[in-house]
Amino acid sequence: MSLRLAARFARRELRGGLRGFGIFLACLTLGVAAIAAVGSVRAAIEAGLTREGAALLGGDAELDFTYRFASEAERAWMEQSALRVSEIVDFRSMAVVERGAQTDRALTQVKAVDDAYPLIGAVALSPGIPLEAALAGQDGLPGAVMERVLIDRLGLAPGDRFNLGTQAFVLMAALEREPDSAAAGFSLGPRTLVATPALAGSGLLAPGTIYTSKYRLDLPEGADLPALEAAARAQLETSGLRWRDARNGAPGVARFVERLGAFLVLVGLSGLAVGGVGVSAAVRAYLAGKTQVIATLRTLGADRATIFQTYFLQIGALALLGIALGLALGGGLPVLMGPLIGAQLPVPAIFTLYPRPLGEAALYGVLTALVFTLWPLARTEDVRAATLFREALSGARLLPAPRYLAVIAAALALLIGLAAWFSGTLRLTLWTAGGIAGALALLALAAQLMRYLARRAGPAARGRPALRWALAAIGARQEGAASVVLSLGLGLSVLSAVGQIDGNLRNAISGNLPDVAPSYFFVDIQKDQMPGFLDRLEGDPAVSRIESAPMLRGVITRINGQPAREVAGEHWVLRGDRGVTYAQSPGDRTRITAGTWWPEAYSGPPQISFAAEEAAEMGLKLGDTMTVNVLGRDITATITSFREVDFSTAGMGFILTLNPAALAAAPHTFIATVYAAPQAEAAILRDLAELFPNITAIRVRDAIDRVSEVLAGIAAATSWGAGISLVTGFLVLIGAAAAGVGARTYEAAVLKTLGAARRRILLSFALRSALMGAAAGSVALGAGIAGAWAVSRGVLDTDFVVIWPAAIAIVLGGVLATLLAGLLFAWRPLAARPAQVLRGRE
Questions:
Q1: 118 preceded by cis ω (within 30°)?
Q2: What is the mean pLDDT of residues 733-743?
Q3: DSSP code of 220?
Q4: How far apart are alpha carbons 591 and 795 in whole angstroms?
Q5: Segment 528-581, tens digit of pLDDT
Q6: How many CB atoms are located within 10 Å of the residue 600 CB?
Q7: pLDDT tier for residue 643 given thresholds of 50, 70 and 90
Q8: For 527-532, which contacts have Cβ atoms below 8 Å and span 24 or more sequence positions?
Q9: Cα 72–chain centre separation
Q10: Cβ neighbours around 515 below 10 Å, total
Q11: What mean pLDDT value characterizes the chain?
């Protein structure tokens, strides 16, 4: 009976409109919209990748081989299974342009193709000539096309000549669009496209050099991809092949989108938590304004359950409205802005309404609204009817009844569980939840401490009326101060943490490396070229260190006789091929952490020294066996030692090192790192390129800059997500300022009656806002730094230093935000006439 009666009361309350719930609806709408929008964009990209899988891949299926071309038997199996087969060779090289005494060089990612390329889609060139004509060349030289950024960097124009290795090419056109570019993954240089036969005399595809051959298959209509993959693995099990097909044409892109989307959803949940603070404050303010209504209902016989159910249903209906508005905004904006967003994306996206991300956002919104509204709602039933006319809500006990606490705890646990499930990142979800909870706790303590200090500092401000009035107001106005510090502080905490994480990621890649990183990586050095290579460098006083090692690529296929992924899951070491080397002794810079190195001149069964940290992550132990496919040959070796491998120095580091006899018959090249003074780098590159045109030089600074560009895009996305949290916090701040207009109007009337000037009253309001903003910003600074340190060290495993410019900007931002909000709502109290205000108060 009470529920039906409560529903009737709630319906009548709702007839009064949405006055007082503007901030409530705005906070909930914005938080849900942010999560729905991120999920919708991610779903659009995933749908685009799925639908255009074959186009992105360049065929219905692809088989990759490292360091070699397919054998006759492998090629025969492909031609038997497919309607057409296209062969592609992918590798890095140096594009060299000679202009008299001047020589320009640039790193490029070369793709050598056959006549069947592309199987799907079309290559767009400028000028718009057919690809076949462009690669045919002119004046007896083979042709090539380049990305425009590489053309500009080398100062070329169509008809100009350049060299790849020892082979001269003529530039025929600019490469405007490559249909399978998304499947290529990360590259350190712009693309150059040539015909495979043109490389026969270049010296770039000699035995042992680093290249990948890819075979794209055009399959019959309705081909069974899973069955064909199983057949390929069964037929070519020992060949070291990697299989991809149209079901996931760009797995690297899909994985990146999934992880970035999950992270942005967690950032969005932080924004929803900020909005939750505003929701809670709005409910408190609304219920405080309903004191007389509640009192009337209680005196007429309404029991506690009826009162609670009345306002639970009313606020629940408004919460559902806010969630619906958020879903409409978050789901509709990506659709409306689809063409604009799609133009900025490097992959296809299909923008429409996707039920799953909208359902996830709705669940987040419902649970957040429940967690943040149940607490203030539960306090209403503990207020006695006799005291409802005398600030009943402020006098109610702090904690609600245990049953409400249990429901809040269950809803919070469900919210965290759903976030972990939907994002697929339990660890990061727990870190995020812990960070939000810790920040809220710190901010709540800071609000109470601020009130306490304001009351204690009041007497010390004698002689400074504006400051004393500001301190008195902060010390007395509990709800306003707490709302400002909690909402703005949490939004600033999220923004501070994201800024610190981004800055430390950049430092990890670029800021800390120049002091220890090599100048160049040189790859594809033939064994007979090593003496001449070392002769040029060892006598150069500008060269401080040279490291070299044999270089092969291998695919880990089995661990202890079982498929590797069944043992170690999707660990990154098992994705694709890895660098493999051999060494007679561990070297001066190698630290063995467990086991022993093989004896000198050892020629027994193959042995492996594996990277210690990666071994621990994969669950490996001494004595385990590992099968590595190198150039189509399986080598099964026993792990006899673990060693420390530090990739952060950008120096040479191999996951796998074998004894020399294990790889004695494998053709290979060498890799070298050269540490030199910056002013000598150009001369070193010029001399080595002239001596050995086939060698590829990778400048470490260029690689760092390329990675930094990718990070800049990630940082921009996360900053937008954190910005939503800050905007929500600012909305709550505006709500708190608007809610206090009446109190400030009365305060200004009293002060003006006592002779205070408007300027001094305005200064008091400004000081009050600035002090609360400084408190929120200071706590947010500490919480953001702590959260960023935890994520950097515990999740990203990078060093951490405080980025002080960003940190100081957070505190200043808090002061400025509260000051602007305070001044925005100060004009009305200052303009009110004291007599009118005081008579109305009576």
A1: yes
A2: 65
A3: P
A4: 25
A5: 888 888 888 888 888 888 888 898 888 888 899 998 888 888 788 887 778 899
A6: 7
A7: very high
A8: 527/668, 527/669, 527/670, 529/692, 529/695, 530/670, 532/691, 532/692
A9: 44
A10: 7
A11: 79
Residues 752, 757, 763, 766, CA torsion sign: positive
Per-residue pLDDT at 1: 47
Give the distance, in angstroms, between the CA of residue 462 and the centroid of all CA atoms in the same chain: 51
Q: Are 639 and 626 in contact (CB under 8 A)?
A: yes
Phi and psi (nearest 5°) for 89? Answer: -120, 130
% of the chain at pLDDT higher than 90: 13
pLDDT value of residue 392? 47
Distance (Å, whole) CA 36 – CA 43: 10
| Degrees, nearest 5: CA angle 115-121-124 | 80
**Dihedral through CA 595, CA 599, CA 600, CA 606, nearest 10?**
-90
Terminal-residue alpha carbon distance, the chain: 41
Cα-based distances in Å from 275 to 270, 369, 735, 779: 9, 9, 11, 18
Burial 144-180 (b: 16+ CB within 10 A, else e): bbbbeebbebbebebeeebbbbebbbbbbbbbeebbb
Whether pLDDT at 397 is above 60:
no
The 10 Å Cβ neighbour count of residue 200 is 11
C-alpha to C-alpha distance for 58 and 183, rounded to whole angstroms: 8
Q: Which residues contact 185 (CB under 8 A, 6 or more apart)?
A: 252
Give the residue with greater pLDDT, 619 vs 257: 619
In three-state form (DSSP H/G/I as H, E/B as E, the rest C), the secondary structure along 287-309 is: HHHCHHHHHHHHHCCCCHHHHHH
Inter-helix orientation angle 251-289/478-506, to 10°: 170
CA angle 157, 160, 162 (to 5 degrees): 115
- pLDDT digit string, tens, across residues 770-811: 888 788 778 888 887 887 787 777 666 667 788 888 778 777
Which position has the token pair 């409400």?
404
**Degrees to nearest 5, angle at CA 210 with 685 and 671:** 50
Q: Where are the beta strands (DSSP E) in 442-570?
A: 520-525, 543-559, 562-563
In angstroms, the CA 307 to CA 298 distance is: 8
What is the spatial distance between Cα 45 and Cα 573, in angstroms, rounded to a whole number?
26
Strand partners, 523: 696
Domain boundaries, the chain: 1-53+253-424, 87-211, 445-516+700-842, 543-676
Highest mean pLDDT among 3-12, 200-209, 386-395: 200-209
Report the C-alpha dihedral over residues 264, 270, 274, 276, rounded to 10 degrees: 110
DSSP 138: B
Two structure tokens written together for 669? 């090249």
Model pTM greater than 0.85?
no
